[in-house]
Amino acid sequence: MRFQDESGHLFQYTTVKSLIELHTQYYQQFYRYINFLTRQRRAAFFQHSSTHISPHERLHDQLSSANHHQTSAINSALRIQQRAFI
Questions:
Q1: If you count Cβ atoms within 10 Å of the first and of the last residue's Cβ in the chain, which end, N or C, has fewer?
Q2: How far is residue 78's CA from residue 81's CA, in Å, rounded to a whole number?
Q3: Which domain holds residue 74?
Q4: Is 3 within 8 Å of 16 (Cβ atoms)?
Q5: Dihedral of CA 8/9/11/15: which sign?
Q6: One digit per residue, pLDDT tens: the chain, 86 residues?
């Protein structure tokens, strides 16, 4: 099956299907990252009342952890994208 866009380019069904799968995987990674940040924020809130870590140290730990997970999610999405277009 073929699809044609406004500019006249033809796309095979498999290409459209693989692009849909790519976007699905990308958004799954994105939502995992958002859920992770939500869990981190909740954990930080409850941890605040039970520890004596300074707010600056706590923020630094949270940002380091969030940055690591964001980098992992982006790298994963890039690997998925590279596989889709090879």
A1: C
A2: 5
A3: 25-41+54-86
A4: yes
A5: negative
A6: 566 666 777 666 666 677 778 788 888 888 888 888 888 888 777 766 555 667 777 777 777 877 777 777 777 877 877 776 65
Tell me whether residue 5 is in a domain. no
Using CB atoms within 10 A of its CB, is residue 66 exposed (0-12), middle (13-18) or buried (19+)?
Answer: middle
Q: How many separate domains does the chain show?
A: 1
DSSP string, 2-44: EEE-TT--EEEHHHHHHHHHHHHHHHHHHHHHHHHHHHHHHHH
Residues 48, 58: contact at Cβ < 8 Å? Answer: yes
Within a domain: residue 6? no
